[in-house]
Amino acid sequence: MEDGWNSARLFCDFFWRWFVISKDLRINDEIRAREVRLVGEEGEQLGIVQLRDAQRIAAEKSLDLVEIAPTAKPPVCKIMDYGKYKYEQAKRDKEARKKQKTMEIKEVKLRPNIEDHDFETKARNAQRFLNDGDKVKVTIMFRGREVTHPELGRTLCLRLAEFCKAEANIERDPKLEGRNMIMILAPVKHD
């Protein structure tokens, strides 16, 4: 039974490598052109050669022949260690993703008759979110007959925007949606 699992695992590993690698570039026997423009390991031009000669040169150096420009006439192939190339490319992609900042939308919920101290606490939270580079969704929740006075919610939204004016711009003005009034603040871009 265990032998069956090992063969299944090997098949999955082979399939995964084939699927991931074959989507990028053609290597070695996957190249279909008769002749190719060959580039050496260090980037030197070796000229236009027959495909089998290029594969032989790569095999003598224990490296791979990789088709880097399949649409060129003739296709451009480079001699390189493909495994090392894929590893370095994955490393570069990971580093680029690490430096990338994803902006989130944080929410601050208020009521129209909020007390001053509670308002200041919520406003400081909004400032903290904006300083972290996140957008802030300000939601004023109306209950019962409070919805008949949307001007209270609008005033509260603008008061919060005034409190955070050094850190934020109003991206979306206060708008009543059902029983909630929503405003979105975006962090100020500092040059």
TrEMBL record:
Which UniProt keyword terms apply here?
Cytoplasm, Initiation factor, Protein biosynthesis
- Where does the Translation initiation factor 3 N-terminal domain start and stop, copy by copy? 27-96
- PROSITE patterns reported in the protein's UniProt record: IF3
UniProt cross-references to InterPro entries, sorted A to Z: T_IF-3_C_sf, T_IF-3_N_sf, Translation_initiation_fac3_CS, Translation_initiation_fac_3, Translation_initiation_fac_3_C, Translation_initiation_fac_3_N
**GO CC terms in record:** cytosol; membrane
Give GO MF terms, alphabetically.
ribosome binding; translation initiation factor activity
- A single GO BP annotation from the record? ribosome disassembly
Localization (cell): Cytoplasm
Record note on quaternary structure: Monomer.
Concerning its family, UniProt says: Belongs to the IF-3 family.
HAMAP family per the record?
IF_3 (MF_00080)
- Role played: IF-3 binds to the 30S ribosomal subunit and shifts the equilibrium between 70S ribosomes and their 50S and 30S subunits in favor of the free subunits, thus enhancing the availability of 30S subunits on which protein synthesis initiation begins.
In terms of NCBIfam families, this protein maps to: infC (TIGR00168)
* Full protein name: Translation initiation factor IF-3
Q: Which organism is it from?
A: Desulfitobacterium hafniense (Desulfitobacterium frappieri)
What is the primary gene name for this protein?
Answer: infC
